[in-house]
């Protein structure tokens, strides 16, 4: 919440967070050790002086997460997103790599976070994004921001938290990311990659060598990632 009057954006509409489809594989579980489906929620705050909207995505009831893919859509005529203003949240405990692809013309953000070992935390902010108000905006209005999908890797349980909308088949299989001819995530189709599996995360991490990675792909490391050896 901000103070000192209403911002020029009278409403920031966050869609795709209340209605969600949650699925995982069925398996026999003891009541005391059952694994609950993770849930994702969105909070927002507006900085009046900086004309900036902060949007953190929070996860609850997550277990053994090693990777997450997040896609967000926004109105590029009202707000702008920059790669350096997309940061991982405290859920990852500072030990995570972040790949971000932003298409300002289309108004889309695709962020992929991954780590070598499962995260011990079960709740916390996955990612934080700061949106800047466009200078050309002079009239109050809505700035719709949609969380299109959040895909997790939870080892045995494949989980998707997805806003109800039409989907098409993935153009590029995730397994092809480890091929020598492909060293980056192809976001050209703007389609979800998930669900993610640990072996595919390992293949992706192995393929992103500093000397061979495509210079156009933005990958930032936070902390030290260990393979356990």
UniProtKB/TrEMBL annotation:
Organism, as annotated: Stieleria neptunia
GO biological process annotation, one example: polysaccharide catabolic process
Region (Disordered): 175-196
Transmembrane segments: none
Protein name in UniProt: Cohesin domain protein
Domain Cohesin: 53-132
Gene Ontology MF terms: carbohydrate binding
Coiled coil: none
